[in-house]
Specification:
The complex is a heterotrimer of chains A (162), B (429) and C (793).
Chain A lengths: L6 H13 L7 H12 L4 H11 L3 H8 L13 E6 L2 H5 L2 H12 L12 E6 L11 E3 L2 E3 L4 H16 L1
Parallel strand pairs in A: 1-2
Antiparallel strand pairs in A: 1-3, 3-4
Helix pairs in contact in A: 2-3, 3-4
Chain B lengths: L16 H6 L4 H9 L2 H11 L11 H6 L10 E6 L8 H8 L2 H14 L3 E6 L4 H16 L15 E6 L9 H8 L23 E5 H13 L1 H6 L9 E8 L5 E6 L4 H8 L9 E5 L8 E2 L9 H6 L8 E6 L4 H15 L5 H18 L5 H14 L7 H15 L1 H10 L14
Chain C lengths: L2 E4 L2 E4 L6 H7 L23 E6 L4 E4 L10 E3 L3 H15 L16 H9 L22 E3 L9 H9 L6 E5 L2 E5 L13 H5 L5 E3 L12 E2 L2 E2 L8 E7 L2 E7 L12 H5 L14 E2 L2 E2 L2 H19 L4 E5 L5 H14 L5 E2 L3 H10 L10 H5 L3 E5 L3 H4 L1 H12 L3 E6 L10 E4 L2 H13 L8 H9 L3 E6 H19 L7 E5 L5 H8 L5 H9 L5 E5 L3 H4 L3 H9 L3 E6 L4 H5 L2 E4 L8 E4 L4 E5 L9 H4 L21 H8 L6 H11 L16 E2 L21 E6 L24 E4 H7 L6 E6 L2 E10 L6 E5 L16 E9 L2
Parallel strand pairs in C: 1-5, 16-17, 16-23, 18-19, 18-21, 19-20, 21-22, 23-24, 24-25, 29-33, 30-32
Antiparallel strand pairs in C: 1-2, 3-4, 3-5, 6-9, 7-8, 10-12, 11-12, 12-13, 14-15, 14-25, 26-27, 27-28, 29-34, 30-33, 31-32, 31-34
Classes of the chains: A alpha+beta (162), B alpha/beta (429), C alpha/beta (793).
C-alpha cells in the first residue's frame, strides 16, 4: 500500500513529526493525510501511520477509532454527514435524512452501489443558524429542503463523475 | 450599541491584518509590550469581571490567578476551540469574521502569564476558521506580532493550530489536553488541575476563543469600561449570542451581557417562526436546562440564569415553538450526549443510553408511570456523579423536562401516544 | 497519619491513602471494579460510592478518588450510597449477557458477586444488548467481549503496568472494544495477568477452559518454581491434575502479577512420562523395598570401596529441607558432603551470591522503588521475567535504567544500553568495587551512580560467574553509604539455587565430582531432583563417569535423562504436591503448601472420558512421595517438616526464622553471614580476536520445568543464532540466512538473526532444551567459534 501516501507526503509528514514534542501528537494529522489520499483509513493506513510515528498499530487505532471523522471502513467517494443535533432537528433534519435515504436507496452507514456516496449522521456541525445542515466532503450545505437536497446531490454526483 | 468582537464584522467578509490594524487592532498588544507589566494585565482581566465564554462561566481572572506564571520551564496557553455544543456557533462566527482578535488575545494572555507556546484546538468542520487562522497567524508572524521578539520586545510566543477529528468530549478541558497530546481524549481526574499539570504535564491555561478574543478589548478599554458594558449589575462585557431553532431570524449577534431572552427572541430573532408561540428554549446550548415562556424577561447572564435553575452556557439560544414535543426534543438531546460520551465512566457511558431508552419508551407511548419515576431516578443518579461534567450537562434538559414539563411527560403515558400534533412537519409520522 | 470514621469505626491510615483503602483496612467490603491495589484509582466505574457526612468533602463521592483526611465521617451504608451503587450495577448489567452458568469466570467473578450483593435481581431494561465479535488473542487468553463492563483494568494492566503495546481500547461511548489491532497472540510475556485482573469473564485462561469451576479447585499458597525470584502463586488442581496457576500476592516480590512462564509452565506436573513408581532396574518395587535397597546398596559400596565412593547430588530445584536432609544422609553414611548443582559455574556464582549482607540485598519491591537500576550481565526477561516488570515500575516512577551487556537485553520500558563484552562487565564491576576510574565510555554510568538516591545493581550469575558476582556485591557495598543505600541483586538459575548454595557452603562442586567419577573413585551417585545430563556442560566427561558407576539412584518428578538411566528411580512429588521451603535470589525463605496429592491425572487414566469406567481402591499414579520425607526415612528421622525446619535453623544460624515461616506470608530474609564480603581483585582482560560464542537463557525453552509444559509449546522459539550486524556484514550474512556454527566439536546449521543492539564480536545462541541447542550451556565462559554462511534466506 505504498500508494496510501506519496513519497513527498511521507517526507513532509516525517518533517512535521520530527518537529513536535511527541510523535503521537500528530496521529490525527497522519491519519487524515491517509484519508485524504485514500478516502478512508484501511488497516494498512494505520500500520503506515504507526511506522511513521514510531507507535504500534494498536496505539494508533486506539486514537483513530475514537473519532467518528476518521473512517476505518470503506466509504464512498463522498461522505454525506447529516447533522442530527437539536437545532437541525427543530428545522426538519429527519425529513432531509429520510429523503436522502430514499433517493440514495441506502440506510445510514451504507454506500450507494455506484460507490459515490456514503450516508452518515453527525453531531452538531456548528451551522445552527443554517439548519438543517449537512456536509458532503469538505462542503457545508445549510437551509436544506427536499428540493435543495436533490440539486445538491445532482451537482455533487456530477462532480465525482467529471 | 457597543460592538467589540463583531465591530469589524460584515457578511461574507474576513478581516485581514491591515483592516484589523486600521480599526485599532494590535494596539492593545503594542500598549502592553510598551508600557504594561504582565501583572497589570492580569489585574485588569481580573477586575474586568470577564467570565469564561466556553460554557462553565468560571472567572477568567481567577483561573489565571491559579497559574504559576513564575514557575520555571515550559508552560502552555491552550485555546479551546472545540465548539461542539449543539446550538453554539459563536466562535465560528468570530473566526470567520475577525480572526486576528484571537491571535492578539492569545499573545496578550501569553504575555500576561509568561507563556511562550500556545495551541489552538480547533474542532472538525470549521474549515474556513482554520484557513482564516492559518492566514492570520502567517500575517501576524510576518508583521512581527507573533513569533520571536514580538514588536522588538523580549517577548516571544509560538502559536500552533491543532485540528480535531470530531468529538464533543474534546471540549472538556482535560480531554482536550489528552487529544492534543495524541492520546484518547478521555478526561483526566482533577486535581491536579491543568494550571499545575496540564499539557505535557506542564502548567497550562485553557480559555475559550471568545474569552481570549475579549482580552485585547479589556487591555484597550480598561476593566471598568468593559465591566460597564453589561446591562446587569454583576455582569461584564458583551456576549456573542446564538439564535437558533424555531426563530424567524437566526444567527449570531453581539449584545451587552444581560439582554433578556424576550428581547433576543423578538427583536433579534424576529419572533417565533410560522406565527407560532414560544414554548421553551435552551438558553445556552444543549446542556442547559429549559426555560419556558414564563422566563422571557430573564436576563441572559450568568447569575440571573442560575437563579432560574439553568445556565448561560455558551449563550447559544435554541427556541422551541408550541408544537414541539419536549419529550422528543429531550430524546434528541440525550441521543447526542449518549453518542458523544467518551465511554470512560459508567453513569455517562451506560446511564445516558438508558435514559434514551426510557425516553424512547415514553415518546412512543409505551411508557408507564414507573418509567417516569425511573427517569427521575436516573436523573438523580447521573447528576453530579459522573467523572466529568459531560453527563451533568446532559442531564440539564432532563432536569428541565421533569421540572417544567412533567404534565406533558405524564400525558404521553396517559394517552399512550405523543400528545403533540403531528403537523409540525418535523416529526416522523 | 489522618484519622477518619467510616461506618462508625475509627481508622488511622498513612498519608495519601484513599478512603476506599481506608475502609478496606477496617475490613469493610467496598464494591469496586476499576480500582486495583496495583493499578490505583481512576474513578471510572463509580461503584465505590460512599456518603461523606462530615469533613473536608461532603456528599456522595467515589471513595477511591478521595484522599483520606482528618475529620472525615463516611458511611458506606447510607441509603443513597446503597441505591446509587445498585444503579451502577444495573447500568453495568444492561448489556451483560446472562451466561453465568456457562461462563468460565462463574464463581470467581467480581461482577457476579457485586451484582448479587447489590440486590440487582430484576432487569428493568428490556432494550437490545450490544454484542461483539471476539478476537483470537493467542494460546493463553480467551476473549469474550460481550461480557465486558468497561472497567479499563485490562488496558491499565497490559499497557501501563506491563508495557505492552498490542492490546488496548478501541472506539468510544458505549461502543468500546478491548482487544488488539488484529487477531493474533498477545505479545507481552505478562499477558496472562489479564486473566487475574479482568473482574468478569472477558479475558479467561484458555488452557484452563472447560476444566473446572473455581469452587472445585484445590488451591494453596505456593511459590513459583520457574526462576529464582520466588513469586507468590496460587496453583489450582482438580482430578489429580494441576490445571492452572494464578498470581498470589507478595508485596515484597511480585505484587499481584506473575509472568506467563510462571503461569503456564505448570504442566510438567501432569506430564504423562513422569516417574510415578519406584523402579529398580526398570522393575516396579514397593517403596519400603526401594528405600531399603538404596540404603543397602550404598552401605555395601561403602564397605567395599570406602565412604568416598558415594556421591550425593542436590539441586536448586529441590526444596531446602530435602537438600538439607541429603546432607544428613551423607553424614549418616560418612560420605563426602553433597554437591549442590550439576553445573559448577552456576553453583559457584550462587555461592558467591549468598555472601551478600541481607541489608544490601534488593527485593523486587526495592527495584520498583529504585531511581537507578544498573544491569550488568542480567537479562531479566530470560533469567527472571518479573524483574523486568519491577524495573518497568521503577521507570514509571521516574527511575533510570542502564544496561551493560553483550546481549540485546530488551525491557518493557525505556533504557540506556551500552554494549559490553562479557569480560568488560567484570572489569566494570571490579573497578566500581575498588573505586577505580572507569573507561570513558562508561562515564555516564558513573555520573548517574553519583546522582542516584536509591540505586540497585543487578547482575546475572550466568554471565558474571562467581568472580563477577563477588565484584557486583562488593561494588554495591562500596557505593552504599549512610546517606544513601545501594542494593544488589543477582539472578540465579533455579528457584532454590540460593538455598542449595547456602547448604553447599565450602563443600565440593560438580567439577570435583566429575573428576572423582572419571577417576573411578565414585561408585554410587544419588541425584536429588537433579539432572546432570541436561545441566552439566561437560557431557562427555559426565557420560564417561556415569559408565564407571556401580549404582545410580535418582529422586525426581521429571522424566529426565538421568532418571532414564537410573538403577533405582525414586519418584518424588512436584512442588505443588508437597510442602517445603525455597530461598529466592535475594535470600528470602518462602514456604509453600501442598495444593493436591499426586496421582495420574484423570485426563490420562480415563483417556478423556469422565467419569472413569473402572474403579479401584487405590489412586493410580499416587506413589510419588515428597523428597524430604523419603530422605527423612532414610536418615531414620521423624517425617515431620516442623522438626526438620527447627533442626535446620539450629544447624545454620542464617536460617533462624525458618521454623516460623508460613506459606501465607511474604517470606523472611535469611540472616547475614558473619564474615565480611570477599574483595575482588583488579582484572586484566585479554583482547580476543575470534568470534566468541555465548549461550544464554531465553524466556521460554531454557528453564527445565516449563520446558516440559505443553501450554507453552506454541511460544517456544526455534533455534537460531544472533550476530551483530557489523559481524554479519563482514561475513556476508543477512538476516534469515542459514549459517554454520562451529564451536569446539560441535557444528550446527542455524538461521541467523541480526541486531545492532549487542556487543560486536559476540555470537549468541539461546539455550533451548530438547533442541540441538541443548548442549550449549549458559553460565560458561564464552568460547571461540566460527560462523559461515550456508545459504541465503
Amino acid at each position: 500500500m505504498a500508494e496510501l501516501l506519496s513519497a513527498e507526503e511521507i517526507i513532509e509528514l516525517k518533517g512535521q513529526i520530527a518537529a513536535v514534542h511527541e510523535p503521537r501528537e500528530l496521529i490525527i494529522e497522519v491519519l487524515q493525510a491517509v484519508q485524504k489520499s485514500h478516502g478512508w483509513v484501511p488497516d494498512a493506513g494505520v500500520k503506515l501511520a504507526a511506522e511513521l510515528l514510531g507507535l504500534s498499530p494498536l496505539q494508533v487505532d486506539e486514537v483513530a477509532t475514537f473519532y467518528d471523522k476518521i473512517y476505518r471502513s470503506p466509504v464512498g467517494r463522498k461522505v454525506i454527514h447529516v447533522c442530527d443535533s437539536i437545532c437541525c432537528w427543530t428545522r426538519g433534519t429527519e425529513l432531509v435524512y429520510r429523503h436522502l435515504q430514499q433517493v440514495l436507496g441506502i440506510v445510514p452507514g451504507e454506500t450507494t452501489s455506484d460507490g459515490c456516496f456514503t450516508l452518515l449522521p453527525t453531531c452538531c456541525l456548528g451551522a445552527c443558524d443554517k439548519s438543517p445542515a449537512m456536509r458532503i466532503g469538505d462542503r457545508l450545505y445549510g437551509e436544506l429542503t427536499v428540493e435543495r437536497v436533490n440539486t445538491i446531490l445532482a451537482d455533487e454526483r456530477q462532480e465525482t463523475e467529471a | 450599541m457597543s460592538q467589540l468582537l463583531f465591530k469589524n464584522r460584515r457578511p461574507n467578509h474576513t478581516v485581514l491584518l491591515d483592516e484589523y490594524r486600521q480599526n485599532g487592532g494590535y494596539q492593545g498588544l503594542e500598549k502592553a509590550l510598551r508600557e504594561l507589566q504582565p501583572a497589570q494585565i492580569r489585574d485588569e482581566v481580573k477586575a474586568s469581571g470577564l467570565r469564561g465564554r466556553g460554557g462553565a462561566g468560571f472567572s477568567t481572572g481567577l483561573k489565571w490567578s491559579f497559574f504559576p506564571f513564575d514557575a520555571p520551564g515550559d508552560k502552555y496557553l491552550v485555546c479551546n476551540g472545540d465548539e461542539m455544543e449543539p446550538g453554539t456557533f459563536k466562535d465560528r462566527a468570530l473566526l470567520e469574521a475577525d480572526p486576528h482578535q484571537l491571535v492578539e488575545g492569545m499573545v496578550l494572555s501569553a504575555y500576561a502569564l509568561n507563556i511562550t507556546t500556545g495551541y489552538i484546538f480547533l474542532r472538525y468542520a470549521y474549515d474556513q476558521c482554520y484557513a482564516n487562522l492559518q492566514r492570520a497567524i502567517a500575517e501576524a508572524k510576518q508583521a512581527g506580532l507573533l513569533g520571536r521578539n514580538i514588536l522588538g520586545s523580549d517577548f516571544s510566543f509560538e502559536l500552533h493550530v491543532h485540528r480535531s477529528a470530531g468529538r464533543y468530549i474534546c471540549g472538556e478541558e482535560t480531554a482536550l489536553l489528552n487529544g492534543l497530546e495524541g492520546k484518547r481524549p478521555n478526561p483526566r481526574s482533577k486535581p491536579p488541575f491543568p494550571a499545575i499539570k496540564g499539557l505535557f504535564a506542564k502548567p497550562t491555561v485553557l480559555n475559550n476563543i471568545e474569552t481570549l478574543a475579549n482580552i485585547p478589548h479589556i487591555v484597550n478599554g480598561g476593566a471598568q469600561w468593559f465591566s460597564d458594558l453589561a446591562l446587569t449589575e454583576e455582569g461584564a462585557g458583551t456576549k456573542l449570542y446564538g439564535l437558533a431553532g424555531h426563530l424567524n431570524n437566526r444567527g449570531c449577534v453581539e449584545l451587552p451581557m444581560g439582554v433578556t431572552i424576550g428581547e433576543l427572541v423578538e427583536e433579534h430573532g424576529g419572533g417565533v417562526w410560522q406565527g407560532r408561540k414560544f414554548k421553551a428554549c435552551l438558553p445556552g446550548g444543549a446542556s442547559t436546562p429549559y426555560l419556558t415562556a414564563a422566563h422571557l424577561d430573564v436576563a441572559m447572564d450568568y447569575v440571573p440564569l442560575e437563579a432560574v435553575k439553568t445556565r448561560l452556557g455558551t449563550g447559544g439560544l435554541v427556541v422551541f415553538d408550541d408544537q414541539t414535543c419536549m419529550v422528543a426534543a429531550t430524546l434528541n438531546l440525550m441521543r447526542f450526549f449518549a453518542r458523544e460520551s467518551c465511554g470512560w465512566c459508567t453513569p455517562c457511558r451506560d446511564g445516558l443510553p438508558m435514559v434514551c431508552w426510557v425516553l424512547e419508551k415514553i415518546e412512543s407511548g409505551q411508557g408507564t408511570v414507573d418509567d417516569v419515576a425511573m427517569l427521575r431516578e436516573l436523573l438523580g443518579h447521573i447528576n453530579g456523579r459522573s467523572f466529568c461534567a459531560l453527563a451533568l450537562g446532559a442531564m440539564g434538559p432532563v432536569d428541565g423536562l421533569l421540572r417544567l414539563f412533567e404534565e406533558e411527560v405524564l400525558d404521553h403515558v396517559k394517552k399512550g401516544r405523543c400528545p403533540l400534533p403531528r403537523n409540525s412537519s418535523l416529526k416522523e409520522s | 497519619m489522618p484519622t477518619l470514621i467510616i461506618d462508625n469505626q475509627s481508622v488511622t491510615v498513612p498519608e495519601g491513602t484513599n478512603v476506599l483503602e481506608a475502609a478496606q483496612q477496617l475490613g469493610i467490603v467496598v464494591p469496586h471494579f476499576c480500582y486495583h491495589e496495583a493499578l490505583g484509582a481512576v474513578g471510572a466505574c463509580r461503584l465505590c460510592a460512599m456518603l461523606f457526612i462530615d469533613g473536608p468533602v461532603k456528599g456522595m463521592q467515589m471513595s477511591c478518588m478521595v484522599e483520606a483526611k482528618d475529620g472525615m465521617v463516611v458511611s458506606t451504608e447510607a441509603p443513597e450510597a446503597v441505591a446509587y451503587r445498585g444503579q451502577v450495577i444495573e447500568w453495568l448489567m444492561l448489556n451483560h449477557p446472562h451466561d453465568c452458568p456457562v461462563c468460565d469466570e462463574g464463581g470467581e467473578c467480581q461482577l457476579q458477586d457485586m451484582t448479587v450483593a447489590s440486590g440487582h435481581s430484576v432487569r428493568r431494561y428490556t432494550g437490545k444488548k450490544r454484542t461483539y465479535l471476539n478476537q483470537d488473542l493467542g494460546p493463553f487468553i480467551h476473549h469474550e467481549m460481550n461480557r465486558c463492563i468497561q472497567c479499563y483494568r485490562c488496558v491499565r494492566t497490559y499497557q501501563d503496568y506491563c508495557g505492552g503495546t498490542d492490546y488496548g481500547v478501541l472506539g468510544s461511548n458505549q461502543r468500546l472494544y478491548f482487544g488488539r489491532f488484529q487477531d493474533g497472540p498477545l505479545e507481552s510475556p505478562f499477558a496472562g495477568n489479564l486473566i487475574d485482573l479482568c473482574p468478569t469473564g472477558v479475558l479467561t485462561n484458555k488452557p484452563y477452559r472447560f476444566t473446572s469451576r473455581f469452587w472445585d479447585l484445590q488451591e494453596a499458597p505456593s511459590v513459583c518454581p520457574h526462576c529464582s525470584l520466588g513469586c507468590a502463586t496460587i496453583p489450582g488442581a482438580r482430578f489429580r491434575e494441576l490445571q492452572r496457576v494464578r498470581s498470589g500476592n507478595n508485596p515484597e516480590i511480585n505484587g499481584c502479577f506473575i509472568c506467563d512462564r510462571g503461569r503456564f509452565g505448570y504442566d510438567y506436573v501432569n506430564h504423562s512420562d513422569r516417574p510415578r513408581t519406584p523402579l529398580l532396574h526398570g522393575e516396579e518395587i514397593p517403596w519400603n523395598e526401594a528405600l531399603e535397597t538404596l540404603l543397602q546398596r550404598l552401605t555395601k559400596l561403602i564397605e567395599c570401596h570406602g565412604s568416598d565412593s558415594i556421591a550425593l547430588l542436590g539441586s536448586g530445584r529441590a526444596s531446602l529441607e530435602a537438600n538439607y536432609l541429603l546432607q544428613r544422609l551423607s553424614e549418616q553414611l560418612g560420605s563426602a558432603a553433597p554437591v549442590y548443582g550439576s553445573h559448577a559455574g552456576r553453583d559457584r556464582a550462587a555461592r558467591a551470591a549468598t555472601t551478600l549482607p541481607t541489608e544490601l540485598s534488593a527485593s523486587l519491591a526495592d527495584v520498583r522503588n529504585s531511581d537507578l537500576i544498573l544491569l550488568t550481565g542480567a537479562d531479566p526477561l530470560a533469567e527472571g521475567p518479573m524483574l523486568a516488570l519491577a524495573i518497568r515500575q521503577a521507570v514509571r516512577n521516574g527511575g533510570r535504567v542502564m544496561i551493560c551487556d553483550p546481549r540485546p537485553v530488551e525491557l518493557p520500558c525505556s533504557t540506556e544500553y551500552l554494549a559490553c563484552q562479557p569480560q568488560e562487565l567484570l572489569q566494570l564491576l571490579s573497578a566500581l568495587s575498588l573505586g577505580e576510574t572507569l573507561p570513558t565510555k562508561l562515564q555516564p554510568l558513573v555520573e548517574a551512580l553519583q546522582l542516584a538516591q536509591r540505586p540497585v545493581l543487578i547482575g546475572g550469575g550466568d554471565l558474571l560467574g562467581a568472580e563477577g558476582t563477588t565484584a557486583l556485591l562488593a561494588a554495591a557495598q562500596k557505593l552504599n553509604s549512610e546517606d544513601r543505600s545501594c542494593l544488589a541483586m543477582v539472578l540465579l538459575p533455579e528457584a532454590n539455587s540460593f538455598g542449595a548454595a547456602l547448604l553447599a557452603a565450602d563443600g565440593p562442586d560438580f567439577e570435583q565430582l566429575l573428576a572423582d567419577m572419571a577417576s573411578g573413585r565414585i561408585k554410587a551417585l544419588v541425584c536429588l531432583e537433579a539432572d546432570p545430563l541436561t545441566d552439566c556442560p561437560d557431557r562427555q566427561q559426565l557420560l564417561q563417569g556415569l559408565e564407571q558407576l556401580d549404582f545410580l539412584a535418582v529422586f525426581d518428578h521429571l522424566p529426565s535423562l538421568i532418571a532414564a538411566k537410573a538403577d533405582l528411580l525414586l519418584p518424588t512429588t512436584a512442588l505443588a504436591e508437597g510442602a517445603g521451603t525455597l530461598i529466592n535470589n535475594e535470600g528470602r525463605m518462602q514456604a509453600f503448601a501442598p495444593v493436591f496429592s499426586p496421582g495420574q491425572p484423570l485426563r490420562i487414566t480415563s483417556q478423556g472420558n469422565h467419569p472413569p469406567r473402572s474403579f479401584s481402591t487405590t489412586t493410580p499414579g499416587a506413589l510419588p512421595c515428597q523428597a524430604w520425607a523419603l530422605l527423612a526415612k532414610l536418615c531414620d528421622l521423624p517425617v515431620d517438616l516442623a522438626k526438620i525446619r527447627r533442626e535446620l535453623a539450629t544447624q545454620e544460624p542464617r536460617l533462624a526464622g525458618l521454623p516460623d515461616l508460613l506459606a501465607e506470608g511474604s517470606g523472611q530474609r535469611i540472616q547475614s553471614a558473619d564474615k565480611p564480603l570477599s574483595q575482588p581483585h583488579a582484572l586484566i582482560t585479554e583482547q580476543v580476536d575470534a568470534l566468541q560464542l555465548l549461550a544464554c537463557e531465553t524466556l521460554y525453552g531454557s528453564e527445565v520445568l516449563s520446558a516440559h509444559s505443553s501450554p507453552l509449546d506454541p511460544v517456544r522459539p526455534q533455534p537460531y543464532l544472533l550476530l551483530h550486524e557489523l559481524d554479519a556484514d563482514r561475513l556476508g550474512i543477512a538476516a534469515g540466512d542459514l549459517v554454520r556454527l562451529s564451536a569446539g566439536e560441535i557444528q550446527l546449521t542455524l538461521p541467523a538473526q541480526l541486531s545492532d543492539r549487542m556487543a560486536a564480536g559476540v555470537v549468541i545462541v539461546p539455550h533451548l532444551r530438547r533442541t540441538e541447542l541443548e548442549s550449549f550451556y549458559p553460565g560458561q565462559p564464552s568460547q571461540p567459534c566460527r560462523v559461515e554462511k550456508v545459504s541465503a534466506l
